[in-house]
Design a protein that fits this description.
The protein is of the alpha/beta class and 520 residues long. 59% of the residues lie in helices and 6% in strands. The N and C termini lie far apart (72 Å). 46% of the residues are buried.
Length: 520
């Protein structure tokens, strides 16, 4: 599939056919390494715990769980079920597929940018996408979002190739097979994450704006209809399981949604990025305002990078936000599959700035390079923060496990705070970092996760566990509580004190947890 054939920085010097793929491969590898670097440092958090525990289940148990919860992530869990049997269960191994996916997404971004902009656009887009905070974050997270970004980028590239690239030179049979690949890819990606199907809205808008031919519209419509029909079973199950996202209606003012939604991680990056997006769209806005004085030729129009990126960035997320007004179902990370579009528009903005500041071709290249370096410098602190030990939702489970390994002894009992919301319960520290809990007695465990129809363990209260004799022969108990806004919860402590356990021993504080030693 020949994607780039536009002029190089020097007029009259076309790109070699191999160069686009060399640029794509180089930036894909750099992005993968950058995402994988130090990806093991941040503690796993609640969503990643759901990935790990679901993937560790026996296949029958996993399929049974999906009929009750997390069906929208079922295909991803099945893939990870096989992956961890090959690569292991360490944080690095769990997150490596996401790093590889971001590398694939960045490679596709360079190819899309270089279709019309040549090597300068391809390289600039590669740099921007490699450091874009939403992608560097998704690339170190054991969830499906990075994979959806890669799928969106490559499916968009395939669509562009079909409507105006080498795809038009295919034989009828080969062209039908290419459209079939597009439809299957869209369906599979939507099974990885259901909201991905909204990308069809952006692709449809591109086809209408470029005045695609009737055969092209017909082929795309068949793919879109086939995708929607294939998703109906998943949509029905997801609707039945809608209670699991009820929390989204309970935290409507969570500021993190805007950091995710803006794709830029921190406000200082968002300000610069939105400024560059505005610069990218300004020429299109001026052209639209003056459309009455322009005689547009009939027939198909080219699919500019601005058009493709703008529809991809705004339409799917806008649709989800509209639905969210009536029924809360959105959080910012759901728009990760639009992050490559943000990189493309930022790139276009940087190129506009470079052309505006440069007096000639050489000075334009210099200005573009400086603007790109400034953007990288703005993103660098965000990348460093993302690799901190508590970067994932303030999770400190690795530190809790290390503290238990250093202080608890064989035969000691451990009691976990059950008052926190499910994704923050310290019990998950034992499931995600089990090394520190070896030899300890989990006295409140009721049903382990792999025998549940929910993704986590079910536990007794301290009183219920005592009624079942779970504390017989126990002389020392470690209680792990969650700090809520710096305030320690006392879940379970009064009941243990009533049984004769005294808080005379050590109290260990980690980032978000308190570990209390009680002895008889």
């Amino acid at each position: 599939m020949t994607v780039l054939a536009e002029p190089d920085l020097r007029a009259g010097h076309p790109l070699r056919a191999a160069r686009p793929w060399a640029i794509a491969l180089a930036f894909g590898l750099v992005a993968t390494v950058l995402c994988a670097a130090a990806s093991w440092v941040p503690s796993l958090w609640g969503d990643e715990a759901a990935t790990l525990l679901s993937a560790k289940r026996p296949l029958g148990s996993l399929l049974g769980m999906l009929t009750h919860v997390d069906a929208v992530h079922g295909l991803y869990y099945l893939v990870m079920h096989g992956w961890i049997r090959l690569a292991g269960e360490s944080p690095f191994a769990l997150r490596l597929p996401s790093a590889l996916a971001v590398g694939a997404a960045v490679a596709a971004v360079t190819l899309i940018a270089g279709r019309r902009g040549g090597v300068r656009s391809a390289v600039t887009a590669g740099v921007v996408a490699t450091v874009l905070p939403r992608l560097t974050y998704a690339g170190e997270e054991a969830r499906s979002y990075a994979v959806t970004a890669a799928a969106a980028a490559w499916l968009t590239l395939l669509l562009l190739w079909l409507i105006e690239g080498g795809g038009r030179r295919l034989s009828p049979t080969a062209r039908r097979l290419a459209w079939l690949a597009y439809g299957v890819g869209m369906t599979v990606a939507s099974y990885l994450f259901l909201y991905f199907v909204t990308l069809l809205v952006a692709h449809g808008a591109v086809l209408l704006a470029t005045r695609a031919s009737r055969p092209t519209l017909r082929a795309w419509a068949l793919c879109a209809i086939g995708t929607v029909v294939a998703l109906l079973p998943l949509a029905v199950i997801a609707y039945a399981e809608r209670g699991q996202i009820r929390y989204l209606s309970e935290t409507p003012d969570d500021p993190s949604i805007w950091y995710y939604f803006l794709w830029f991680g921190m406000p200082w990056v968002a300000v610069a990025a939105w400024g560059l997006v505005a610069a990218a769209l300004w020429p299109a806005w001026r052209a639209w305002r003056s459309r009455g004085s322009l005689a547009l030729p009939p027939g198909p129009r080219p699919a500019s990078t601005r058009l493709v990126a703008a529809t991809w960035l705004f339409l799917p997320t806008g649709l989800m936000l509209l639905v969210n007004i009536a029924y809360p179902m959105y959080t910012g990370r759901y728009s990760t599959f639009a992050a490559p579009a943000a990189a493309l528009l930022i790139t276009e903005g940087i190129l506009v700035v470079g052309r505006s500041l440069g007096r000639d071709a050489r000075s334009a290249v210099t200005a573009t390079t400086i603007a790109t370096v400034v953007f990288v410098m703005l993103c660098a602190p965000v990348y460093v923060l993302q690799r901190g030990p508590y970067a994932k939702n303030d999770s400190d489970w690795a530190a809790v496990s290390a503290a238990m390994a250093a202080n608890a002894g064989p035969g000691d009992a451990v009691v976990f705070d059950q008052s926190a919301k499910p994704s923050q319960r310290p019990r998950l520290a034992m499931r995600t970092y089990p090394q520190g809990f070896r030899g300890l007695r989990d006295v409140t465990l009721r049903t382990p996760y792999y025998r549940n129809d929910w993704w986590g363990d079910r536990a007794y209260s301290v009183t219920q566990a005592a009624e079942r004799g779970r504390f017989e022969g126990v002389d020392r108990v470690w209680v792990i509580e969650v700090l809520d806004d710096g305030v320690q919860d006392i879940s379970g402590l009064p009941e243990l004190q009533a049984m004769g356990f005294d808080e005379r021993g050590r109290t260990i504080t980690t980032h978000r947890s308190v570990i209390i030693e009680l002895t008889r």
